[in-house]
Amino acid sequence: MKNVIEISTIFKLPAKEILDLKTNLNLRFVDGVVLENRFYKDIILFRYLLDLVNKFPINITSDLWIENFYVQGYFTGGTYLGLYSLFYKKFFNEKLVLEQENTYILKDLFASMYETMQNVNRELVRELIDYVMDVEIDDILEIQFDEELINAIIESSKNKDQVSVEKTYKILDKLFKDRKYNDNLMTLLYLSGAVSKDQVKQLLGSRGYLTELDSKLFTEPMTNSFVLGFKNMYEAAIESRAGAKAQYLSTKAIQDSEYANREIQLI
Q1: What is the mean pLDDT of the chain?
Q2: pLDDT score at 64
Q3: Which residue in 18, 111, 131, 221 is deepest, having the highest Cβ count within 10 Å?
Q4: Can you tell me the distance from the alpha carbon of 214 to that of 16, in angstroms, rounded to the nearest whole number?
Q5: For residues 79 and 128, is the Cβ–Cβ distance under 8 A?
Q6: What secondary structure, in 3-state letters, does the chain show?
Q7: Which of 224, 198, 222, 201 is nearest to 143 (CA)?
Q8: Rounded CA gap, 205 and 134, in Å?
Q9: How many Cβ atoms sit within 10 Å of the Cβ of residue 4?
Q10: Cβ 225 vs Cβ 204: under 8 Å
């Protein structure tokens, strides 16, 4: 096969220099596997995430390739966790005999993982805009401060009942379906199903009724949206129970939606 690049060649270049890469490549890994026509943006991301090998050298085998850790084809916090979990196992299996001083090596390794993730955020995301979907705060606020919706939230704050809470959801749903804000990205996300409609309703409508850990219902609902924030200590306190309940009922130590910076503590 022509034009096969040894993977070690990629790591001889500083991470920033590879940002200029605009060509797909055939890559040969240390285990002899050749991955053909790898997308250049995947290569750049892979080079950044495995910048660790310059300080903690391991054999870069094909099972470390970045696409193996995408979640449904996308780069997520789970990508960090999967890649770095495997890196951790390989590093200790290949390079170290467990001794007391390895505690310090472990601390240094985790610190380097964290710094690498920060480099991705600082340097790489701006270059790989295709990997990033964002919503302007102006789009969110445009809908949040719609007069009809705001009036419904004010009514909900006065009445403190389920009917008023549901009214904010109905108005919000109508705003999206009537395409009043047709050029607003939130409309596209809501109607396409790219985001959870229930979560959007609590983001922009009244938060609603919450329950304690024992499933007892708090007598008064949270009438503000997440965007508008908590009005008082009561709302802040009962919202904290939602997080506690989610953690209590979770079947996983850390959910996939948690920040990778927290996930990495469990490697």
Answers
A1: 82
A2: 95
A3: 221
A4: 52
A5: no
A6: CCCEEEHHHHHHCCHHHHHHCCCCEEEECCCCCEEEEECHHHHHHHHHHCHHHHCCCCCCCHHHCHHHHCECCECCHHHHHHHHHHHHHHHHHHHCCCCCCHHHHHHHHHHHHHHHHHHHHHHHCCCCHHHCCCCCHHHHHHHHCCHHHHHHHHHHHHHCCHHHHHHHHHHHHHHHHCCCCCCCHHHHHHHHCCCCHHHHHHHHCCCECCECCCCCECCCCECCCCCCCCCCHHHHHHHHHHHHHHHHHCCCCCCCCCCHHHHHHHC
A7: 201
A8: 21
A9: 12
A10: yes
Amino acid identity, residue 30?
Answer: V
Closest CA to 7 of 19, 23, 31: 31
In the numeric block, which tokens belong to residue 126?
Answer: 């701006």
Residue indicated by tokens 């409508």: 205
Q: Among candidates 212, 198, 222, 142, which has minimal Cα distance to 175?
A: 142
What average pLDDT score do residues 113-121 get? 83
pLDDT higher than threshold 50 for residue 253: no
Report pLDDT digits (tens) over 159-200. 999 999 999 999 999 999 988 888 898 998 888 887 888 889
Nearest 5°: the CA angle 184, 186, 187 is 70
Query: What's this model's pTM, rounded to 2 decimal places?
Result: 0.52
Per residue in 61-77, pLDDT (tens digit) is 999 999 999 988 888 77
Taken in order 245, 248, 249, 254, is the CA torsion positive or negative? positive
Which pLDDT score is estimated for 128?
A: 55
